[in-house]
Write a structure and sequence with these properties.
Layout (H helix, E strand, L loop, with lengths): L2 H11 L2 H6 L10 E7 L6 E8 L8 E7 L6 H16 L5 E7 L13 H4 L4 E5 L11 H9 L6 H15 L3 H18 L5 H8 L1 H4 L3 H28 L4 H8 L3 H8 L2
Helix pairs in contact: 1-7, 5-6, 6-7, 7-10, 10-12, 11-12
Length: 263
């Protein structure tokens, strides 16, 4: 299962998931931006970083690592990336590293060089198979639990999540994102089943025909089209077109083009 991409997609759509996992208030998510950070002049890219927003300067930076297999080099790689980031960007904020293991047995055995860090408050390790299994858990945590759920239990758990998302999530676009994410997790768990068979298993055929889902789908398409237009501005500027000309060609407001041009 492509767990990294699932978690990063989940943290992008529902950043409160991360803070629920580390026993911090879900409201903390509003003070952070989840990002992938490329370490300049190196071949390294840190895929999961929660960066405090400018107005939340006292919050720490969180480096997130997802581990669903044995990797004896995990800590050497993680700390190399963290300290290289600190060297290159010289942040003034504190930092924390959070390692999310599918199970405790995936934790490296030879950790003597990193023991001081691992024993400190700088590093927190989570084991998903040890999360409390309860229907009272937040929706975000139950989505995480679906990733490590057994094949026998996954379909029923997924159906409960879809029903709960429909009842609790007001934002139509976010509701659709959660539905698609749950479907993707189940698809990874049952790679031999077709998308149509997965939809039938989860009862998604009817859900996807609802007005809320269709409206969210159309809204998502509109957002995607706008994002595509905005990404086209820089190349057109490089070719010598004026802000006014680009706005006319792309059917955008002049102010939208000007904001991108000033970045």
């Amino acid at each position: 299962m492509k767990t990294d991409s699932i978690f990063y997609r989940l943290f992008q759509a529902l950043p409160s998931t991360f803070f629920e996992l580390i026993n911090q208030p879900a409201s903390e998510a509003s003070t952070y931006q989840f990002a992938s950070v490329e370490l300049k002049q190196t071949a390294f890219r840190i895929d999961g970083v929660f960066l405090p927003l400018p107005e939340a300067s006292t919050r720490p930076i969180y480096f997130v690592e997802i581990q669903f297999q044995n990797d004896p080099t995990l800590y050497s790689r993680l700390f190399a990336e963290v300290f290289l980031y600190l060297r290159l960007y010289e942040p003034t904020k504190a930092w924390r590293a959070v390692v999310i293991f599918a199970q405790r047995s995936f934790e490296p055995i030879e950790v003597a060089p990193y023991q001081v860090l691992l024993d400190s408050s700088q590093v927190q390790c989570l084991y998903l198979d040890e999360l409390q299994d309860s229907l009272d858990q937040p929706l975000e945590i139950q989505i995480v639990q679906l990733v490590v759920e057994t094949e026998a239990e996954a379909p029923e758990q997924a159906r409960r999540l879809l029903q709960r998302a429909g009842e609790e999530v007001v934002d139509a676009v976010l509701q659709r994102e959660i539905m698609d994410l749950v479907e993707t997790i189940v698809c990874y768990k049952f790679p031999r089943l077709s998308r149509e068979e997965i939809e039938a298993m989860l009862g998604l055929n009817d859900l996807k025909q609802t007005r809320v889902y269709q409206e969210a789908l159309e809204e998502g398409k509109q957002e995607g089209r706008l994002e595509g237009k905005l990404e086209t501005i820089a190349p057109l500027l490089a070719r010598g077109l004026s802000v006014e000309e680009i706005a006319k060609v792309l059917d955008l407001e002049i102010e939208q083009v000007r904001r991108v041009a000033q970045q």
